[in-house]
Amino acid sequence: MDGPVKRRYDTSRRQEQARENRRRILAAASALFREKGYAGTAMPEVAKAAGVSVQTVYKAFANKATLLKAVFDVTVAGDDEDVPIAGRDFIAEIQAEPDAVRKIELYLDHLAGIAPAVSPVQLLARDAAAADPAAAEVWAQMRREMLLAMTYFSADLLATGQVKPGLTADDVRDILWTYHGPEQYELLCLERGWSPQRYGKFLRDAMVAAVLA
């Protein structure tokens, strides 16, 4: 009887240790990517900063590009829980809101709040893509995921009946996707010094004017 109990205990302990190692690796990688850039960050440095072996890093993340994508995902979600963005409370709030303008306001409030953390990671992936095929695939995956998210958002806005006549779902999706790109944050906040709040209001006004009647 003691044997099975011990095995369950050992398995639970190993799983918790793996989760803790993953959290430490992600935190270390996030700090190093921001400080030294993608090309300037080496996996052994991540391991040292996280207090784990290099083998542990590679066991959790196949390569540096995979690690960058995981850093991005955790930054967007705010945690490493196994809950998709579509299942998060702020998405449910947007979907429940009947007014299209308010939907966009709620979304942009959220985006402006996370942009200072998320956009630099996106820009790291974009810049790394020019020299690293694995990073290029990660960047392409980020773009595909955002396009899919804006496809859902477009359908949600169209369902309100408040979208400009003549705009198709694809039109609305592409407009939202364009404004959502990290390039807007790069230009306005990083280069021109806008606050995230001003950036969010600009996007809100631009999206409303572009897609709503």
Automatic annotation (TrEMBL):
InterPro entries: Homeodomain-like_sf (IPR009057), HTH-type_TetR-like_transc_reg (IPR050109), HTH_TetR (IPR001647)
DNA-binding region ranges: 42-61
Keywords: DNA-binding, Transcription, Transcription regulation
Region (Disordered), start-end ranges: 1-20
Superkingdom in the source lineage: Bacteria
Residue ranges constituting the HTH tetR-type domain according to the UniProt record: 19-79
One term of GO molecular function: transcription cis-regulatory region binding
Protein name (Swiss-Prot/TrEMBL): TetR family transcriptional regulator
Protein species of origin: Amycolatopsis vancoresmycina DSM 44592
